[in-house]
Amino acid sequence: MRTLAIGDIHGCYQSLKALEAAAKMTAGDRIVVLGDFVDRGPDTRSVLDWMMDRKGEGLIALRGNHELMMLAARRSDDRHQEWLSCGGDAVLDSYGVDHAEQIPERHWEFVASELVAYHIGKNHFFVHANAYPEMDLEEQPSYMLYWEREAERAPHRSGRVMVCGHTPQRNGIPLDMGHAVCIDTAACRGGWLTCLDVDAGYCWQANEQGDMRGFWLDQGPCASQRERA
To answer: Of 75, 121, 171, 193, which residue is the least packed, with the fewest Cβ within 10 Å?
Structure first.
């Protein structure tokens, strides 16, 4: 069984589908989506449908700060306006509606009930944003798991490698620190969506312009690896 981690999707459904094909994802793979799959990009609705279709096929969906903002938007008008300014307007556009209340209930149930704060594997652990190195994952505060970008990422006490998103790598290259890997590569800001085979160390990347590339994490991409999907 492969463990494939996918960085912050942010509604970039075409990139997600391209990665699915490039990585030849199957029901035998464990797919860990690192959160922030909603907002900003053009097709949150299709991204959620894709994830829901894979609930029984090894998908593990982490909660990100944008899912938290989306849920809060349903509870108050002030939070709804805040969410719209942070990319929620693109979500409504993908559904063709004017307010969060009009999003289908099955999608709300998925975002509210099917997401987890973290996932622990044999050699890796997965969070959306960050983790204090000296604290077990069940002890981590919410702001660290969902919001923190600036905390020092020293090796975690568990000895496992942290795989995270949240902090966009605007150069399009995952940040590999050995003991931690950040695979948010700014998909919704003209960058790449990254899928990482965490054990093999191989990356596939796609963007909304139809480009694809693949490379070993410890080598990085080169111009010759870029091709049209």
So the answer is: 75
